[in-house]
């Protein structure tokens, strides 16, 4: 599982978890948690240190992710901002990073897709398309993978229609990559989603 492109990820984990009714990044999932499972999927695929954008309960999440190869960026406006605002902060931090060159690919995703597999991530990273979106059973999912050459254009987006609007504004046809990984579709928005994801994991 050795992708030919270097890659990293920006994970938006600043939200209030209002619909869940509990702070979902730290909810247990098997031997890990929702957020740790996602970070470990990227690590297992060969990712460079992952950028996690925190907001609500930032110190709790930072402690929870201790020991993992993550970079933490704080969204102080987490109560009033949207997911794309957090992704933009993470991308901006990569742009400003002076210690290392930009990787070839950057994955963008929310923190609540814990079942996406390392194999799917590695397969997406190997693609040469500027935008790669995974598709399972005819449905588009997360994460989205973009070429680092798209970074500056993404940072210029005004936030309208979130990540979808930013990608549409690039005027580049994405590669819809068919994968046999239902994990790309299993976002944990509500407690019902969480219970369903736990059942899927047990299977």
From TrEMBL:
Entry's Gene Ontology molecular function annotations: nucleotidyltransferase activity
Domain of life: Bacteria
A Pfam entry, by short name: NTP_transf_3
Domain MobA-like NTP transferase residue range list: 9-168
CDD domains tied to this protein: GT_2_like_f (cd04182)
InterPro entries associated with the record: MobA-like_NTP_Trfase, Nucleotide-diphossugar_trans
Signal peptide residue numbers: none
PANTHER family documented for this protein: MOLYBDENUM COFACTOR CYTIDYLYLTRANSFERASE
Name of the protein in its database record: MobA-like NTP transferase domain-containing protein
Lineage: Bacteria, Bacillati, Bacillota, Clostridia, Lachnospirales
């Amino acid at each position: 599982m050795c992708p030919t492109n270097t890659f990293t990820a920006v994970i938006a984990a600043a939200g209030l978890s209002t619909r869940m009714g509990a702070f979902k990044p730290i909810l247990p999932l098997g031997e890990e948690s929702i957020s740790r499972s996602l970070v470990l999927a990227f690590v297992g695929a060969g990712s460079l240190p992952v950028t996690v954008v925190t907001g609500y309960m930032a110190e709790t999440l930072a402690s929870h992710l201790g020991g993992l190869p993550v970079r933490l960026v704080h969204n102080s406006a987490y109560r009033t901002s949207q997911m794309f605002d957090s992704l933009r902060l993470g991308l901006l931090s990569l742009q400003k990073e002076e210690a290392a060159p930009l990787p070839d690919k950057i994955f963008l995703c929310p923190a609540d897709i814990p079942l996406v597999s390392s194999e799917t991530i590695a397969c997406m990273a190997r693609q040469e398309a500027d935008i790669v979106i995974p598709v399972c059973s005819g449905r588009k999912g997360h994460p989205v993978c973009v070429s680092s050459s798209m970074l500056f254009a993404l940072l210029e987006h005004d936030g309208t229609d979130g990540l979808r609007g930013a990608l549409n504004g690039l005027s580049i046809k994405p590669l819809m990559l068919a994968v046999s990984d239902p994990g790309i579709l299993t976002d944990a928005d509500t407690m019902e989603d969480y219970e369903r994801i736990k059942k899927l994991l047990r299977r």
